[in-house]
């Protein structure tokens, strides 16, 4: 645990990627093998489910420290992170526990089915045997997020630097199905498990946002253009008569989409196909808000299958009958994909992505601008000669999205961030007018400069009206332009609408509150888009 605690501390104090990579390399050189596996698991989304409720941890902390709830909540609102609040409030350790990360994680996994009283004994024993930083790590291991700016790519680059193994191979090795208890660090890194796992996906090829004028891309004939759909990017893996569906987040989502499993079972060949999972009805693509009803469901009922049918738009073929095609030019892979799809009869909801027909770059402007009419986000531009890269590589794939929708709204709630931003208000809730009152429409935490965040935090400290834990109700005076990708009616939101990917476009210091949008004007964007 001490080694892992030192790793987290080192990473937290820097925003330089190379420094983070070096910290991981040093850790992997010295840590036990099982601890190394747990670090990879924790930073690739494979943490076990939470074994202890946070409300219980709060109660036990107040009991141990003999502080009233109001003081705990005041401390929590100041710190902005529950795990850190607990670590700061607890008294000094009375003894020393020196367990490895693997031993702690094994204990935490075994803790989940136990009684609350047994959980209390375990947690209090840990709290009184760890120093402040190790307590924070322990609290985070129970179920919190480290939020220290470490991506899978950073982790993979560190492993590549450590082992001199190709980063692409490492990425392929660590995503997918593997368990800490059933694999060694060496076997994972060398990818010894890959050939035995029919479900193994490939790392996704991603695109950069278009940052140049279309003519600068060269000849139009060198490019293939498709619609950019707003769904779940997925890979359909079919090997040895088994079918698996992976999301871009490296989650196995096969059971959520039984109709896709049935459809791709029509093929005789084996393959790995990249494409988009979409909510579709009568061959029309529905909104992402509709697709959300199908996500994270353990059981997909017959009623849900009928209410929210899904489809698949196939973009690319990465593997065919055991052969890795990713180094082949995109135009060749596309032809192979077309041949495959023409070889069998498929339901209407499984289709090849539509290729946009154009002669000149200027022809694409109107097509892109009309994308929202078919619930598309814009266009994808792919170089015909491009291989299927790991992650992003500038120049080969570009996404050219439609301009975001925007509204003007007033901030009504502010909440402090975590980590390095735990002293500042960084998360905001925004509202628009509804009759003579205000109704919330969005939460956002990105889009402002550090200077603006500091200025807003100072304003919140002076203009807070009420406190609810870490949240402050503020005077409705600061107006912001909120940008978002899409909008839909929603029964789950008090306003009756849901915004897709809201973020702050700018602080409207020039605009008074009485000129913000109304809920009626916001809803008009649904039909306009």
Overview of this structure, please?
By secondary structure, the protein is of the alpha+beta class. The protein has 3 domains: 2-143, DNA ligase i, domain 1 (Orthogonal Bundle); 205-401, D-amino Acid Aminotransferase, Chain A, domain 1 (2-Layer Sandwich); 405-528, Nucleic acid-binding proteins (OB fold (Dihydrolipoamide Acetyltransferase, E2P), Beta Barrel), CATH 2.40.50. It is 35% helix and 24% strand. It is built from 19 helices and 22 strands. Strands 4, 5, 6, 7, 8, 9 and 10 form a 7-stranded mixed β-sheet that branches. Strands 14, 15, 16, 17, 18, 19 and 22 form a 7-stranded antiparallel β-sheet that branches. The protein is globular, with a radius of gyration of 25 Å.
Main features:
alpha+beta; DNA ligase i, domain 1; D-amino Acid Aminotransferase, Chain A, domain 1; OB fold (Dihydrolipoamide Acetyltransferase, E2P); 7-stranded antiparallel β-sheet
Topology record:
Blueprint: H1 2-12, H2 17-30, H3 33-42, H4 54-65, H5 69-79, H6 82-89, H7 101-111, H8 116-127, H9 132-143, H10 152-163, H11 167-174, H12 185-190, E1 205-206, E2 208-209, E3 223-229, E4 232-239, E5 242-247, H13 258-264, E6 271-281, E7 284-285, H14 288-291, H15 302-307, E8 310-320, E9 323-324, H16 330-341, E10 350-352, H17 363-369, E11 376-383, E12 391-392, E13 397-401, E14 405-416, E15 425-434, E16 437-444, H18 450-463, E17 464-468, E18 471-474, E19 479-484, E20 486-489, E21 497-500, E22 503-507, H19 519-528
Parallel strand pairs: 1-12, 2-13, 8-10
Antiparallel strand pairs: 3-11, 4-5, 4-6, 6-7, 6-8, 8-9, 11-13, 14-15, 14-18, 14-19, 15-16, 17-18, 19-22, 20-21
């Amino acid at each position: 645990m001490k080694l892992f605690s030192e790793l987290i501390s080192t990473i937290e104090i820097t925003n330089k990627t190379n420094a983070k990579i070096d910290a991981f390399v040093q850790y992997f050189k010295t840590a036990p093998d099982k601890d190394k596996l747990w670090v990879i698991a924790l930073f690739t989304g494979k943490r076990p489910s939470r074994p202890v409720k946070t409300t219980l941890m709060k109660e036990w902390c107040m009991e141990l420290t003999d502080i009233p709830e109001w003081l705990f909540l005041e401390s929590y609102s100041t710190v902005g992170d529950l795990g850190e609040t607990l670590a700061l409030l607890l008294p000094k350790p009375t003894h020393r526990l020196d367990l490895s990360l693997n031993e702690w994680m094994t204990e935490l996994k075994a803790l989940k089915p136990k009684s609350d009283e047994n959980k209390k004994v375990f947690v209090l024993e840990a709290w009184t045997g760890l120093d402040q930083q190790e307590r924070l790590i322990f609290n985070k291991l129970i179920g919190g997020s480290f939020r220290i700016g470490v991506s899978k790519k950073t982790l993979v680059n560190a492993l590549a630097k450590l082992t001199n193994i190709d980063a692409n191979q490492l990425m392929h090795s660590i995503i997918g199905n593997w368990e800490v208890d059933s694999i060694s660090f060496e076997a994972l890194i060398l990818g010894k498990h890959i050939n035995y796992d029919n479900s193994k996906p490939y790392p996704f090829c991603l695109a950069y946002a278009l940052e140049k004028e279309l003519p600068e891309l060269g000849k139009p004939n060198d490019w293939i253009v498709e619609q950019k759909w707003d769904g779940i990017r997925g890979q359909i893996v079919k090997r040895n008569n088994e079918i698996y569906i992976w999301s871009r987040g490296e989650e196995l989502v096969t059971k959520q989409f039984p109709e896709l499993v049935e459809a791709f079972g029509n093929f005789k060949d084996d393959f790995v196909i990249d494409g988009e999972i979409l909510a579709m009805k009568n061959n029309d693509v529905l909104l992402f808000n509709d697709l959300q009803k199908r996500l994270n469901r353990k059981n997909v009922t017959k009623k849900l299958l009928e209410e929210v049918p899904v489809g698949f738009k196939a973009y690319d073929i990465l593997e065919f009958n055991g052969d890795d095609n990713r180094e082949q030019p995109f135009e060749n892979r596309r032809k192979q994909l077309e041949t495959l799809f023409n070889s069998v009869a498929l339901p209407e909801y499984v289709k090849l992505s539509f290729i946009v027909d154009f002669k000149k770059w200027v022809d694409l402007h109107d097509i892109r601008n009309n994308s929202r009419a078919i619930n598309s986000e814009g266009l994808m531009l792919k170089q015909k000669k491009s291989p299927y890269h790991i992650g992003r590589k500038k120049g080969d794939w570009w996404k050219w999205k439609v301009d975001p929708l925007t509204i003007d709204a007033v901030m009504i709630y502010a909440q402090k961030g975590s980590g390095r931003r735990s002293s500042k208000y960084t998360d905001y809730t925004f509202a628009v007018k509804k009759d003579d009152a205000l109704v919330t429409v969005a939460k956002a935490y990105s889009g402002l400069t550090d200077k603006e965040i500091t200025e807003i935090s100072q304003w919140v400290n002076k203009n807070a009206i009420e406190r609810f834990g870490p949240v402050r109700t503020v005077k409705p005076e600061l107006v912001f332009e909120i940008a978002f990708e899409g909008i839909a009616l929603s029964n789950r939101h008090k306003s009756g609408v849901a915004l897709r990917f809201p973020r702050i476009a700018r602080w409207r210091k020039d605009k008074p509150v009485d000129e913000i949008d109304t809920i009626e004007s916001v809803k008009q964007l649904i039909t306009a888009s």
